[in-house]
Amino acid sequence: SRWLKDEGDAFAIEDWLVEVDTDMVTIALSAERAGKVLKILKWPGELVAIGEPIAIIGDFEEDLPESFIRP
After folding, report:
1. Is 21 helix (H, G, I), strand (E, B) or coil?
2. Using CA atoms, how far apart are residues 44 and 20, in angstroms rounded to an integer?
3. Are 53 and 46 in contact (CB under 8 A)?
């Protein structure tokens, strides 16, 4: 797995965001809308359950909510 965008990066609709490895295939996921990567929650090599969030995506002007910022 690998991220194709970093935290804070803006992206357009259909830009590739991340490649995800499964035990069967590697798939690339693209953006369904334009926006910005606010926070990456899962990094390459980490196991992720089906349906578990791997990132927080927001609008271009949006910032990460205070509840997600660690001191």
Report:
1. strand
2. 8
3. no
Give CA–CA dist 40/56, Å, rounded. 6
Bridge partners, residue 21, by sequence: 26
pTM, full prediction? 0.84
pLDDT tens column, 45-58: 899 998 999 999 99
Show the tokens assigned to 56. 């927080």
Rounded to whole angstroms, how far apart are CA atoms 22 and 27? 8
Residue tagged 């935290």 (tokens): 7
pLDDT of residue 70: 61
Q: Which of 71, 69, 61 is nearest to 35 (CA)?
A: 61
**How far is Cα 20 from Cα 28, in angstroms, rounded to an integer?**
6
Residue 30 · residue 61 · CB < 8 Å: no
